[in-house]
Amino acid sequence: AAALEAWRVPHAHLGADSFFERETIVAMSAVLSAIEWPDDDLSVYATLKSPFVGITDADLLAYRTAVGPLRPLVPAGDVPPELALVASTLKLLRELHAARHQRSIEASVRAFLERTLAEVSLALDEDGDAEARALGQLVSLARASDGRGESFRDFVRWLARRVDEPGLGSLDPAPDPEAVNVVSLLSVHKAKGLEFPVVILACP
User: Fold this and answer.
1) Does the predicted TM-score (pTM) go above 0.70?
2) Cβ–Cβ contacts within 10 Å for residue 16, how many?
3) Who has greater pLDDT, 153 or 176?
4) Alpha-carbon Rg for the chain in angstroms
5) Alpha carbon distances (Å) from 146 to 10, 106, 158, 181
6) pLDDT over 50 (residue 38)
7) For residue 88, how many other CB atoms are within 10 A of its CB?
8) Where are the beta strands (DSSP E) in the chain?
9) pLDDT tens readout for residues 100-118
């Protein structure tokens, strides 16, 4: 997976656990929804509480009391220093919303992850490596969506549908490789009974 990511080849690891049920993927679905629909209070709240940002309920309440609503499109007034993270995250969502049609889906996803230092925070987590790989796969899927000429909203809806319906979105068993248009990484056991136009047996 790391080698494919280094070469920017769209890929997905088809493991035993549903890719779309991983914490980081569920969180990114909310993030991307907040970018597409910044007036969606639930998605914005989920983004602020996500593992990428981690703002407490106490700080969110303090922000609403001292500054105003948790709305990315509503300009903030004077923000106390201790609430700067709330304001900067809302500003980031506003900027990504405004630029989502001027850049690729992959670039929008990467911009959020880079601006929130997601990889750094995941490095401190016990399961950080696995979650970081999942984010790499999400970036790869965004790249594949770009390759199909889909819009940011198309990708957001596609991801949300699979997160909301795990049975629909599970990467186990494998999806139709021609429909998804990614390199599928899976064990011999997982591949049993499946057919692919090209198979590479790695490290036999």
Assistant:
1) yes
2) 9
3) 153
4) 18
5) 11, 7, 13, 11
6) yes
7) 15
8) 11-13, 183-185
9) 999 999 999 999 999 998 8
